[in-house]
Amino acid sequence: MNDRIVAKRPAGTGDAGAREGVPAARPATEAPIPPTTEADQNAPHVRPGDRIFRGLATGSGIFIVVLIGAIGLFLLLQAIPSLALDQVSFLTSREWSTGDVNNMRFGILDLLLVTVVSSAFALLIAMPIALGIALFLTQYAPRKLSRPFAYVIDLLSAVPSIIYGLWGLLVLAPVLTPVGEWLTDVLGWFPLFAEGNVSIELGGTIFTAGVVLAVMILPIITAVSREVFDRTPPAHIEGAIALGATKWEVVRTTVLPFGKAGYVSASMLGLGRALGETIALMIILSATNAAFGWSLFDGGATFASKIALAAPEFNDPRSAGAYIAAGLVLFVLTFVVNAIARSIVAGHKEYE
Amino acid sequence: MAKRIDVKDLNLYYGKFHAVDGVSLAVPPKNVTAFIGPSGCGKSTVLRSLNRMHEVATGARVEGKVLLDGEDIYASTVDPVQVRRTIGMVFQRPNPFPTMSIRDNVVAGLKLAGERNKKKLDEVAERSLRGANLWNEVKDRLDRPGGGLSGGQQQRLCIARAIAVQPDVLLMDEPCSALDPISTLAIEDLITELKKEYTIVIVTHNMQQAARVSDQTAFFNLLGVGQPGRLIEVDDTEKIFSNPSQKATEDYISGRFG
Fold first, then answer.
1. B50 with B169: CB under 8 angstroms?
2. What's the pTM?
3. Each residue's pLDDT tens digit in chain B (258 positions)?
4. Which element (helix H / strand E) includes B236?
5. What are phi and psi of A297, to 5 degrees?
6. What is the C-alpha separation between A306 and A97, in angstroms, rounded?
7. Where are the alpha helices (H) located in A234-316, listed in sequence order?
8. In whole angstroms, what is the distance from residue B205 CA to residue B176 CA?
9. Neighbours of A232 (CB within 10 A)
10. Which chain B positions have a beta carbon within 8 Å of A257's beta carbon?
């Protein structure tokens, strides 16, 4: 046994055969590090520290999976009885009346559309701006400026949602009113810009909500993209410069390809936040009984804002269950968005 | 093609630190010049000043002249981007663009220069890969990412990328230091071939390599910590390695260096 271990040692650290006798005492501590096929014969001695740490890490991993599973299960169990009482199709109906528990009619189609459209609109605004800011901070801004500037961007994420909501409705909405009127006048033939089902002057539209959401998700997208762009290997940047690339060409040939996956997942994180945003949208969006007509100037409610507004109804488990069912759909939606983001990132791995 | 370089009283700085003091030397066309010397003596810095890569670092500054066939590349009318397009560079660690295919890596410089003709690009890719002795190994997988090649292959890919734009001069910054002996040999053979067409300047820590591949050798040294690096002497490689005129050179090449 001794021979074999001594023979193995030169492959490890440089002090092969340094001291006679010592190697015999060492294999016990060395064996677990490179897992070999002989490990089981060697009866590896695992240090208590390793065991405790592995237990903690594995426990944490299991805990989070169990937690998510439990949340999903809770939502499902609470939702099922109400879903059974639903008089209309849950997935395709636009109705939502849960006041009369003997005749509950609720469907999530409008909620789903308003949620997705407002978030997608926000993402559309925020993505290019965040990209610009992140590139500016990492590639163009002088070091002295980029740090304080980055702090300011991060501060945006520290503003409470309720402030965003009030700001959106009281300050931003009046400013956006002429923009909205112009859009409906000029581009009104296009469904997204058609006259909506709520008053543009009051500003409680998906348009306003989307702009506010864009501001809210800007910091997270910017911060993550900035981190990723900053990690572009200097060797690649130098390679591009040495080929005679201008600043923009360096960005295009090295920084962007390197950071693309990170940027996409940053955007998906932002989308996740937008989908779940509650208070700001609850304040901004005007309620309406009319169905969502694919216009940015419609009002309505998202999953989260609808649920928050309905808090007084939760005393009856049957009507509460309807909202929990809606929450379950939001849960699944966010899950799907994250899964898509993961697959985009994973599909990009080949090049790294 | 293949221009000469004349360096005149070149001083290089990183912020307040004076990195290289008063270097003057001439690099003839179609010739290999090796820069040798201990770490920190400024040989890489001098090399990087020859294609204006030195100034990319924050606070870096250049004084003096670098003439490319008589034209000062540091003249105020000269665009550094243009300089780098005519003076190619190969780095210590192979740095192919990981998101690009092998073919795109080779023609990256040409694409930057505005070449869009696919037929032309394919021709250049083949010619450059042949020139870098890599064609036979990669011709069946030109669309695979460059990062999938071995280290030696990646370095030859970088050489192909550098020669694809047919530069006037090729600078190599310790191109073999991250490679195994067989890949090193392949690169050295390649350098000997490339010198038929290009002016080459190579920084190396390997003195046998300098002796094997170069026609002319420049020895740089450092008088002390915090002092700027200096050019001690430059002469025919044979002379430097057999009978250098400076004691410091002899000490360094014979291994008696501090």
1. yes
2. 0.81
3. 689 999 999 999 999 999 999 999 999 999 999 999 998 899 999 999 999 999 888 889 999 999 999 999 999 999 999 999 999 999 999 999 988 999 999 999 999 988 899 999 999 999 999 999 899 999 999 999 988 899 999 999 999 999 999 999 999 999 998 888 888 998 999 999 999 999 999 999 988 999 999 999 999 998 888 889 999 999 999 999 999 999 999 989 888 654
4. strand B229-236
5. -100, 15
6. 12
7. 234-242, 247-250, 256-276, 279-284, 303-309
8. 9
9. 20
10. 97-100
Interface of A with B (CB under 8 A): 143, 233, 235-236, 238-246, 249, 253-254, 257-258, 260, 350-352
Contact criterion met (CB < 8 Å) for A244 and B84: yes
Here the tokens at position A302 are: 């998202």
Helix (H) or strand (E) holding B227: none
Q: Domains along chain A?
A: 2-85 (no CATH), 96-351 (1.10.3720.10)
ipTM of this predicted structure: 0.90
CA atoms within 13 A on the CB side of A186: 6
Rounded CA-CA distance A15/A116 in Å is: 62
Helices (H), B164-246: 181-194, 207-213, 237-242
Asked if A246 and B91 come within 8 Å (Cβ–Cβ), the reply is no
Is residue A299 within 8 Å of A205, Cβ to Cβ? yes
